[in-house]
Amino acid sequence: EVQLVESGGDMVQPGGSLRLSCAASGFTFSSYFMNWYRQTPGKERELVAQISSAGGSTYYSDSVKGRFTISRDNAKNTLYLQMSSLKPDDTALYYCARRTGDVRGQGTQVTVSS
Fold this sequence. Notes:
The chain is mainly beta. The chain has strands at 3-7, 11-12, 18-25, 34-39, 46-51, 58-60, 68-73, 78-83, 92-98, 108-112. It contains no helices and ten strands. The strands form two sheets. A six-stranded mixed sheet has the order 2-10-9-4-5-6, with no helix packed on it. A four-stranded antiparallel sheet has the order 1-3-8-7, with no helix packed on it.
C-alpha cells in the first residue's frame, strides 16, 4: 500500500522550532520529487517547500524562505521539514505529498501561539 505518514506537529510559542517528518512506504521514495503543503480552513492550500528526488534541488514559498528547510533521507524513506522562527501565521495542517499529486498524507497540526 502506498502511504505517507506525517508526524512532529505540536503547539509551539512564536519564535520556536519544530521538525516534521513524513514516512513513505509502498513505493520507490527516491524516485519522486516531494512536497510539503499547508492548509488552513478558509484559505487555499499553500505549497510550502519542494525537494528533488535526490535532494539536490529545493524550492520554498516566499512566506517560509529563510526559516524552513526541506530535506530527505532516501535510505530511510523519510522526508523532513525543519521549521524555525515560527510565527502565528504558520499555524496550519501540514502534509506531505508526491509532486505528481496522486498521493498525500493525512497531515500533522502545527499551532504557533503564546
